[in-house]
Predict the structure.
Amino acid sequence: MKKLKEASTEEKIKEAARRVFTEKGYSGTRTRDIAQEAGINLALLNYYFRSKQKLFEEVMLEKVIKLFGLLSPVFYNSDSNLEEKFEEIANLYIDMLLENPTLPTFVLSELAKGHFAIEIPLKEMITNSVLADQIKKQNPDIDPIQFLFSLLGLVVFPFIGKPAFRQFGLTTETDFTKLMQARRRLIPVWATAILHS
Amino acid sequence: MKKLKEASTEEKIKEAARRVFTEKGYSGTRTRDIAQEAGINLALLNYYFRSKQKLFEEVMLEKVIKLFGLLSPVFYNSDSNLEEKFEEIANLYIDMLLENPTLPTFVLSELAKGHFAIEIPLKEMITNSVLADQIKKQNPDIDPIQFLFSLLGLVVFPFIGKPAFRQFGLTTETDFTKLMQARRRLIPVWATAILHS
DNA sequence: GTCTATATTCCGATAGAC
DNA sequence: GTCTATCGGAATATAGAC
């Protein structure tokens, strides 16, 4: 019978690493910060994970999957129509991003810096999807990638822009949450309108 | 008569700093990289700018203005209607971002990390703008900030998502440029559709 | 103004005791 | 497995000659 109330040392380190890396990025993170946040000693970090880089890669892989893994089940759902798929995506993402507001900036910024390289060929996964078929049937002229930029932009961009908007006095934390809750119902409507124009 | 072909040392450092900071972020940048990129010695950097932080702040201020300064002239243009304003914004941003594709990720990521704090109260600048009036007249129910998230998301997000999309094999450099050129004409249509729905 | 050399702090990683 | 102590290198910043 495993103890439930206390995580293993390895997991404590990883959980601390998730927080610190996401907040400060790879270069801004010091392994000492992670150790302190985990309540353990610096040496243990290198005992469990060989290096800062290795630990980062484990965390980063999780985060990439967390950010983009939501898509494929929806893309391949053959029981829902287009507008229902937009609802699913809006709801799944807004739920997850309200819990993890700094995730997109972290992942996209680190991918841009090349600190992490994975080769996941999604091109065919997307072009063969049910969603791609439904889009093509609805509007054969639009490029699916063009549309995907728009859909994801509508969902994800507010979370990326929020720190700037806050500094400029354009929104507060509670206002932002309300805006995102309202956005759930707006995004499917907007995405449909975009697709038909 | 000033020489035109050779920039001053101070400007050479600053120009190098713009490149390196934008590429690697504040924490990932070493002052040695900037010095080497500028073709000068490390000591000169501290001679002209007191510290890495000071130099960063000067660069960052420029970049924030470059990213958000495009908006106010359009917001206060009383000679254009809504759809024309959307056209202006799409064209200005896409021109600028094709020249500076890494600018948004850099600025928004560094603002999120709190490496830079400016207090620019834009709240009133926006709510008092001609654009805000025109939006309210067109659709009194939509929150202007909600709409601004959408408009900027449509324009800016592709540039933030591009590195990920490239790694996933969803786009190439030349494909991306074509998509963005097509996007100029699409965004005004989409923004209008969003506003009316 | 510009350089070389160096002071000083910081950080990732390891040695070695328990 | 976990800790303390420390090594070795890297990074910012400055001293001082020219």
Notes: Chain A has eleven helices and no strands. The mean pLDDT of chain A is 95. The CA atoms of residues 176 and 182 of chain A lie 10 Å apart.
